[in-house]
Structure formats: C-alpha cells, structure tokens
Specification:
heterodimer; A: 462 residues; 2 domains; 20 helices; 0% strand; globular; B: 231 residues; Rossmann fold; 6-stranded mixed sheet; 8 helices
C-alpha cells in the first residue's frame, strides 16, 4: 500500500495548495465556487474508488462472534475501523490546505469552517454508502454509468448537473449553519449501516461468502494449440472467474484510450512526438502491463501444483507469453481508430505494438520473476500499491520498457526524421522477436533460480 | 526407487530434517508418522523439489530431484489446497491434470468412474468451483487427481484428515489397491496410527527431523507405535 498511498498524499497535498491559485490564474472565477461546481464529480470518483478498493469491515468479524462481546460492540468496532481508513483521512490532505489557503485569501472564517465541516461529513457519507452498497455490482454500475453520461453531456454542453449541485455546495459556505444537513445525513447513514450489519451478522446471513454457480467450460477449440492450449484455457478461466484478474483486464482495456490525451492535443506537455511513442507503448500494452507484470503471481495460490506437476518451465512461460502477445494484437486492432488522428498517431501505435510484442513481452515476464506478491484472486482490495511489487529490480526493468523506445525514437527523429524514428522502434521490436529462443532461455534460468524464493513468498498469504 | 542421502534442511540454527539415509524400494507402500513439526511435510516438499535441501539430495528413479525436472512425469502428489486450482470446477481440474499428463478426456472419465463410490456424489456435476467445496470434498478431488496418468510415485500428505468416516474407509481400500500394484510406490503421512498401519507395508517414525523407528508392518506394529507416542 505504502507507495500508492504516498503518491496520493502527494497529489492531494499539491492540489490542496495549488488549486486556489491555478483557478485564480486561469481566471475561471471565484476559486471556491469553481471547486464547489466540480465537487459532485469529486465525490462520485471517491465513491467509485472506494467501491473498487476499500476493504470491507466484515472480513475479520467471524473470530469475534464467538468471543464475549456484545453484537453491537462488534458492529461498532468494525464500522469504527472504516472511519480511520486511508480512504477517509487522505482527503484531509486536500481539504485542510485548501481551507487554509481560503482563510489566508480573506474568506470568512466561520463560513470556511462551515464549508469544511460540511465536506468532511460528505466524505464520511461516502464511507457508509460504500459499506451499504458493497458487492452490489448492479447498483455500482448504474451509478457509474449515470455519472459518465452526465460528464459527457456536460462536456458537450447538453446538460450541466453542476449548475444544480454547485449552488448546493455553495450554501455550505454562504450559510455555514447548513453544514448540519450533511452531518444529519451522515448520522442517518451510520445508523442505517449499524442496523443493517447487526441484523445480518450471522454466518449464513451477511457473513456468508457468496457462492456463484459454476459451469464447466470445455473451450475445446483451444485444443488445437496442444500443450499451449491447456494453459490458455486455464488463463481464460482465470480472467473470467476472478475479480482481481478481471479488473486487470479492464484496466488494460482503458489504456487503449489513454492515447487520446496525447493525440488530441488535450494536454500541452504531451503534445510532442517523443510522448507519442510513449503513448503508443501504453495504448497497445495496457494488458501487457496490468496483467503481465503479475505473471506468475496470478498462479500464486496453486504454485506448488504448477511446480510439481508434469510441466516444463518453458511451456508454462511460453503460454503466458502468447497470452500477452494475443492481447497486444487485439489492443492494436481495437486502437485502429487512432488513424483518425493522422498517420503519425497510428504509426506511433503500430511501432509501440511491435516494440511491446518484441521486447516488452520478455521484460514483463522477466520482471515477474521478481514480483513475489501472492495474489488473492477473489478480492480487489489490494489491487494497487502492493509494496513488494515495487522492488528495485522491477523498477529497473521498467526503464527499458518505457524509456528505451523513446530514446530509440529520438535518435531516428533527429537523424532522419519522424518516420525513421517509428521505423527504428519497430525494427528494434522485430529484433527482439528474432532472439526469442535466447531470451526464453535467459528468462527460464531466472525463474528456476527464483523458484524456491517464490514458493516461499507465496506461502505467506496476502 | 527413492534414495535419500545425507538429507538435511535447516532454517537458521533450527534443523527441521536430518536423514542420513533412507531407501524406498519400488512398489512399497510407505507410511510416515510423527508429531507436528517432526518433518513429514518437509520431507515430502523436498521430494517434490518445492524447497531446497540444506545438505544432501534425493534420487528418485535415477533422477536427482533438485537438479533435473525429469521426475515430474512419473511423480504426483496431493499435499494441501495449494495443489488445487480454486476457480476451476472439479471436472475442469481433472481434465487439466489429465492434459498435463497426456491423458485425454475419455481416459480421465474412465478413471473417474472408478471413484464414483469415493466421491459419494459430492464432487462431479455439483456446479461448484473447487474453492467453494468443503475441505473434505476438496481433499477427495485432490487425492483422485493425483492418480491421473499412472504415476509411479504417489505422495499424499495427511490424506485421511478432514474426511468423513465412510470416505476414510473407502480411501484405505483405494490406497491398499494402489499399493498392491507392483510398479506404484505410495508415500502416505498420517496422524492416525490405525489407518497408517492398516495400509502401509512399512512405517517410519520421524521425531524432530530424525528417523527414530523404521518398522515393517506386522500385527504388533500398532501396539509398538502406541507405546512410542503414548510414553
């Protein structure tokens, strides 16, 4: 968690101090009003993040049930635990500095306090809403969908929800006493969650683990790939049936659209050819990075089986390699729409794809040998910021994944022009392809060397 | 079949296993007993090259297990739930193991049909993933999977634990039958002295990592073991 948390703290802090002045400089109007306008999206994002990542308090209740506590004490304890969660106090890094800046800029003390307290309550409201809707996927997707639509329609000027919500949040400042309202909502939500939990605290009630009905799938069409098909079948089931693996794939899918930031000129500092090749790598390599970096951790819960069954290392690695390659090819096809932004954009995507297939596919497998983080497939809650995933070796391997293609491109760009830059990157990728056997021999040796350490690390459950 | 030479495993100053020499001939049914921490699972893990020996080595059918992977085709094991793939249904799991060991669906189905009694209608066609089965049923699936593909060495760690009485009795029958086949070497560990004396021709007692008894099973064996562990 540590690294991800530090990152967010840094982002929040700089936003907290910077927002006021950025808005002032951009002359968008009264900074507080502008912030209020967009706070509805802030709250919704927060909720989405929590839904995906925040650990639910029920996880460790079972052992408490048999001990001499009153049920209400147990519920208080576990709800109390959510209150001190990172997902709540991290917001203080934005709101506290922002409020301080407001005060130094001559806003009324009482009003700022009212606004601040009101928001604190709203953040905590999110906390309990999340507790209540936990694992109700339909509700979640409905809310997320509605707000994506609202965002889009605001962008195109069809309908502006902030025109209605902004003034509401303004009231917290204009009439500080209205801060009581969010607090009242918060208390109501707390009481509701409390009762809900208390009522459901039985092993066969709220504490029961959800059992989904399983269906045996044959996927016989993969048999034609021989041994490879055997593993591919498993990997497809892994992705289909496990929340954590599914999120990795979805994250990879969204990377396809990451390039829009670069190719539409939406962000000024991204608008240069060097960043475009960077974008090309990400657009086609989303799956490669989000899923590939955790090979072999996806198999961590049954790694002893994989290591003692009749499996040669080479086959195992080859199947993972093919999975990554297939996904890269699919991403590249899906990314064809970048043609719309001109040949350079599409050349960057294609060059990135070839580089991903030829070089990065080895590098993620290689890096994976050092990522000894056991993965709990059924839970999303630790999906980012496992600190073991960020050791020095994996970071070192990340550099050639991203920087090397930029450097290669730059050389081509300055010697023979942009087209040569893209061709250089692609040629480099093709070279990697030629040396496949050599690369696999090296990777295999590393996996074998790390085998015992990996087995031991996977034994310590996440 | 299996030869153990000067094998030891040490964690820091703590020696958890130390076996000067041990010879298990082909076709023997071999029982391993000992209290918790005696080194049973450590020995099995070394046999499967899941941990590295501190000294010495194991040779299985002329293959030194920590040097070559050639022992994998003729060895199979069920140690614990890390030998199960939780997100597969039992059928998918059996077919997966079958494919790894060069057996097609029909072969696997034929083998599974022999274990209908043992499964007691709780494994096949249950519309459940392995992770959602009870501990006992998971064990049944894991044990049967270790029989797929005619392995010559079968290693089962605590196979009787978590099973209901009926299944325990059936499992005894299955292991005895397996042991009668000349070419299959079965290694079983257990805390249940009665079961192990019933199914194994030879019993080795481990205590704090060392072999303290090596008995050919006879009518007196149970008494001898009970005296050892009781006193």
């Amino acid at each position: 968690m540590a690294l991800g948390a530090l990152y967010f703290i840094a982002v929040f802090l700089s936003l907290g101090f910077g927002t006021y002045f950025i808005i002032e400089k951009a002359e968008l109007g009264d900074p507080l009003r502008v912030v209020n306008k967009f706070l509805i999206y802030y709250l919704v994002f927060d909720l989405v993040f929590r839904y995906m990542l925040q650990k639910m308090p029920v996880t460790n209740i079972k052992p408490l049930l048999y001990l001499p506590f009153k049920k209400s004490q147990v519920v208080h304890y576990s709800l109390g635990k959510t209150i001190v969660s990172f997902f709540n106090w991290s917001h203080a890094f934005f709101f506290v500095p922002f409020s301080i800046i407001l005060l130094t800029q001559g806003y009324e003390v009482i009003n700022v306090i009212g606004w601040h307290l009101g928001f604190m309550a709203l953040i905590y409201c999110n906390n309990f809403i999340n507790v209540l809707v936990n694992n109700k996927d339909n509700v979640f997707y409905l809310i997320a969908g509605v707000f994506i639509l609202l965002g889009v329609s605001q962008y195109y000027g069809w309908f502006d929800i902030t025109a209605y919500t902004g003034p509401l949040f303004d009231k917290l400042y204009d009439i500080p006493i209205t801060a009581i309202i969010p607090w009242a909502i918060l208390i109501a939500l707390f009481v509701t969650s409390f009762n809900y939990f208390k009522k459901n605290m039985f092993l066969d009630g709220g504490l029961a683990t959800k059992v989904t009905e399983a269906k045996t799938e044959n996927l016989d069409w993969l048999n034609r790939f021989g041994n490879l098909g055997t593993f591919l079948k498993n990997d497809i089931k892994l992705i289909k049936r496990n929340k954590r693996a599914r999120s990795a794939v979805i994250a990879g899918f969204f990377f396809i659209f990451y390039g829009l930031l670069f190719f539409t000129g939406a962000v000024d500092s991204y608008d240069n050819p060097f960043m475009k090749i960077f974008a090309g790598i990400f657009v086609t390599g989303g799956f490669l990075f989000s899923f590939g970096q955790y090979v072999p951790s996806w198999d961590s819960s049954y790694y002893p089986l994989m290591m003692s069954q009749n499996i040669q290392y080479r086959e195992y690695l080859t199947s993972k390699w093919y999975l990554v390659i297939i996904a890269t090819v699919i991403s590249t096809v899906l990314a064809s729409f970048y043609l719309y932004f001109g040949w350079e954009a599409y050349a960057a995507v294609l060059a990135g794809a070839v580089y991903n297939v030829g070089i990065n596919s080895y590098l993620v497998l290689w890096g994976g040998a050092y990522v000894k983080t056991p993965i709990d497939l059924t839970s999303n809650k630790k999906a980012f910021g496992d600190k073991q995933a960020f050791n020095a070796k994996t970071l070192l391997i990340t550099l050639p994944k991203l920087l090397l293609p930029i450097i290669i491109y730059t050389i081509g760009h300055f010697t023979l022009g942009p087209a040569a830059g893209y061709i250089f990157v692609a040629v480099f990728g093709l070279l990697g392809f030629v040396f496949k056997n050599k690369m696999f021999a090296i990777i295999e040796r590393i996996y074998k060397k790390e085998k015992y350490k990996t087995l031991l690390a996977y034994k310590q459950k996440a | 079949m299996i030869t153990v030479n000067n094998l030891s495993k040490t964690y820091g100053a703590n020696t958890v296993l130390n076996i000067k020499s041990l010879e298990i001939p082909k076709g023997q049914s071999f029982g391993l007993v000992g209290n918790n921490g005696a080194g049973k699972t450590t020995l099995f893990s070394l046999l499967l090259d899941l941990i590295q020996p501190s000294t010495g080595h194991i040779i299985s059918n002329d293959v030194q297990v920590d040097q070559s992977e050639a022992w994998k085709p003729f060895t199979s094991a069920f140690i614990d739930e890390t030998f199960l793939i939780g997100y597969l249904t039992p059928e998918e799991y059996f077919y997966f193991i079958g494919e790894l060991r060069g057996r097609n669906k029909a072969d696997v189905d034929a083998l599974l049909s022999e274990f209908e009694d043992f499964f007691h209608g709780e494994i096949l066609g249950q519309k459940k993933y392995l992770r959602d089965l009870s501990k006992g049923n998971q064990k049944k699936a894991g044990i049967v999977a270790s029989f797929i593909g005619n392995p010559e060495v079968v290693i089962l760690d605590e196979p009787f634990a978590n099973l209901d009485p009926t299944t325990q009795i059936r499992l005894k029958g299955i292991i005895k039958e397996l042991a009668e086949k000349e070419e299959v070497t079965v290694l079983v560990s257990s805390h249940d002295l009665i079961h192990v004396t019933e199914v194994c021709e030879r019993i080795v007692v481990l205590n704090k990592g060392e072999i303290v008894k090596d008995i050919e099973t006879s009518t007196e064996t149970l008494k001898e073991l009970e005296t050892f562990f009781g006193g």
